[in-house]
Write a structure and sequence with these properties.
The complex is a heterodimer.
Chain A (H helix, E strand, L loop, with lengths): L1 H18 L2 H27 L6 H18 L5 H23 L4 H21 L1 H4 L5 E2 L3 E3 L2 E3 L2 H24 L1 H11 L1 H6 L4 H27 L1 E2 L6 H14 L4 H17 L7 H15 L3 H10 L2
Antiparallel strand pairs in A: 1-4, 2-3
Chain B lengths: L2 E12 L2 E12 L3 E5 L6 H8 L7 E6 L2 E2 L5 H7 L1 E3 L12 H8 L8 H5 L3 H20 L15 H14 L4 E5 L7 H18 L2 E5 L3 H7 L2 E6 L2 E6 L1 H6 L1 H8 L4
Helix pairs in contact in B: 3-5, 3-6, 5-6
Classes of the chains: A mainly alpha, B alpha/beta.
The structure holds adenosine-5'-triphosphate and magnesium ion.
The site of adenosine-5'-triphosphate has 12 residues of chain B, from strand 2 and helix 1.
Chain lengths: 305, 255
């Protein structure tokens, strides 16, 4: 049954650019990009309990890195450009994660919030490099001699990258690393007493989370074509948090479902901008009160023997 | 018998309270040593210093020749000191099996990259760790609860789960903080058998804090008595139960 459902999803997913109008191909790509961010955010917030309201900042760093590699990198192939975006963003993640080791709870969240603002300021101030508020045009992704200029081509690139990152996240979280991160969430004292170097793993969680978000940023840059700092405001960071709380903290499949729901909802509500905070606020409070494990938790309870 | 753990001149204050004053304690390799004393005597504080959670104001702690006070808690665990907690500190929302697997963290290979790629080497490590963890759950009598969420286990089972998790780290010295708390007499007898077996079969050295005198007197080679942060007596179980200072500390001084 589960396999059958999964198979249908894979087939529809692969045929999507042939079935759906252009806009919906773009929207589906955006769902996958957001799913990558949500998985990354979940590794940090859901697994080690370091709640970040600054992930739009990481997304921006990945996006601008990719754009700049495209402009000055001499036709770097897409996988290498994404790897570059991921590594640069991960390095920034470590730089943010190290001082955050001294912070907990609300203070840590405030620091990540501030980080998001700092990134936007930096983009505005480095206008020689980033073109500031005027916006930076992103050269199309390249694969050898080809440029990925259609929505369909970009969609397939996004799908392949997402699939690889989903598999990697499932593998990582199911084994030793995932357990160490969860142990930190559950009890730092007991984790240490069990031989888990808590500071190291918290920092690795920051790096890993930033890596995922940086790669997503690269894909995002190609999808939207022009970057400007207002695309990475704090409301986007809040959206990412809503995705993982709705989907389920500490769940990879939950991250994907949460990203899909929030992205599609966001699109449907495009005409009602003023009501968005109200609607997402209601979703957040509803989840916390009635569905603490998010969609993933509810699913587990439904299917539990 | 050689000294495995050696504590000397240990003092720690909380505000104005001297939780430990000038404590000396030797634990010989292969011994079962009990640390007893009235509530608030400082027993758990000793454990917290030994496992690196508290930093004493004075004193030395050496374990197999290493200065434990210079090490971070996780490094102490890796040197071979594992512990359980008085008020249980299980990973509540994880399964019993995962709890024990986390105890094996330092003995499993596989970082982020190896894990992400699920390399064959990492997978086989994981499979072996799971077998070892299941065997430990069987040892403490929780074989049937492997997939149960730790928070939903009864308190006595959570205490045993913590023992299994501590054993998973393959310690040389095991610190047990009130392992019989909340157990009925039958369970306590089983626990005594288990602690003896750990020493005899696994060659562990055990330092335990316990209020159940039957257990303390039944299995300890030596007993040290704390009161208000000071050691007021130490000796074989028979000597301790007759010691006037100990009786006074427990029953209160006649005015
Ligand atoms: N982190 C701390 N901060 C302040 N005071 C503390 C702290 N830890 C312990 N104490 C105090 O130190 C004293 C010794 O406490 P400890 O927990 O070691 O006692 P104990 O012998 O384990 O008692 P019990 O048998 O009740 O477990 C108590 O007065 C306690 O309140
Ligand atoms: Mg105590």
């Amino acid at each position: 049954m589960r396999r059958a459902v999964l198979l249908v999803f894979v087939i529809v997913g692969l045929a999507w650019p042939l079935l759906a109008p252009r806009y919906f191909v773009f929207l589906a790509s955006l769902v996958f990009v957001n799913a990558i961010v949500a998985m990354g955010l979940n590794l940090l917030s859901g697994y080690t309990h370091q709640l970040s309201f600054g992930h739009a900042g990481f997304l921006a760093i990945g996006a601008y890195t990719t754009a700049l590699l495209g402009l000055h990198g001499g036709g770097l192939p897409a996988p290498l450009a994404l790897l570059g975006a991921g590594v640069v963003t991960a390095a920034v993640g470590v730089a943010l994660g190290l001082p955050c080791l001294r912070l907990e709870g609300l203070y840590l969240t405030m620091a990540t919030l501030a980080f998001g603002f700092v990134v936007i300021e930096a983009i505005l101030n480095l206008d020689r490099l980033t073109n500031g508020a005027d916006g930076l045009r992103v050269p199309a992704a390249r694969m050898g001699p080809w440029a990925l200029t259609t929505d369909g081509a970009r969609y397939y690139l996004v799908v392949v990258v997402t699939a690889l990152l989903v598999i990697a996240a499932l593998n990582v979280t199911r084994m030793r690393v995932g357990r160490a991160l969860l142990a930190i969430r559950e009890s730092e004292i007991a984790a240490q007493a069990s031989g888990v170097p808590v500071a190291t793993w918290k920092t690795i969680a920051f790096a890993l989370s930033a890596f995922y978000t940086g790669v997503a940023g690269g894909l995002f840059a190609w999808l939207i074509g022009t970057l400007s700092p207002d695309a990475f405001d704090v409301f986007l960071s809040v959206d990412f948090v809503v995705m993982i709380i709705l989907g389920g903290l500490g769940s990879v499949p939950g991250s994907i479902v949460g990203a899909a729901v929030v992205t599609v909802l966001n699109d449907a509500l495009a005409g009602f901008q003023n009501y968005r905070p109200l609607i997402f606020g209601t979703i957040l409070i509803g989840c916390m009160l009635f569905m603490p494990g998010g969609i993933a938790g509810a699913w587990r309870r439904q299917t539990a023997p | 018998m050689t000294g495995l753990l050696s504590v000397s001149g240990l003092s720690i204050n909380f505000g104005g309270l001297a939780a430990l004053s000038d404590l000396d304690l030797e634990v010989a390799e292969g011994a079962i040593v009990a640390l007893i004393g009235p509530n608030g005597a400082g027993k758990t504080t000793v454990f917290n210093v030994l496992s690196g959670l508290y930093h004493p104001s004075r004193g030395r702690v050496t374990f197999r020749g290493d200065d434990l006070l210079a090490l971070a808690p996780y490094a102490i665990a890796r040197r071979g000191v594992a512990r359980t907690f008085q008020n249980t500190e299980v990973f509540r929302r994880l399964s019993a099996l995962d709890n024990v697997l986390i105890g094996r963290h330092a003995h499993i290979k596989g970082g982020v990259l190896g894990g992400a790629l699920a390399l064959p080497r990492v997978r086989s490590e994981e499979a072996r760790a799971r077998r070892d963890a299941r065997a430990l759950l069987d040892l403490v009598g929780l074989g049937d609860s492997a997939n149960v969420e730790a928070a939903s286990l009864p308190l006595g089972h959570q205490k045993r789960l913590e023992m299994a998790r501590a054993l998973a780290a393959e310690p040389t010295l095991l610190l047990l903080d009130e392992p019989a708390g909340g157990l009925n007499p039958t369970e306590t007898r089983e626990l005594m058998g288990l602690i003896r077996r750990l020493r005899d079969e696994r060659k562990l050295t055990i330092l335990l804090v316990e209020h159940d005198m039957q257990l303390v007197m039944g299995i300890s080679d030596r007993v040290a008595v704390l009161d208000h942060g000071r050691k007021i007596a130490e000796g074989k179980p028979g000597e301790i139960s007759r010691d006037p200072a100990v009786i006074e500390a427990y029953l209160g001084a006649p005015e």
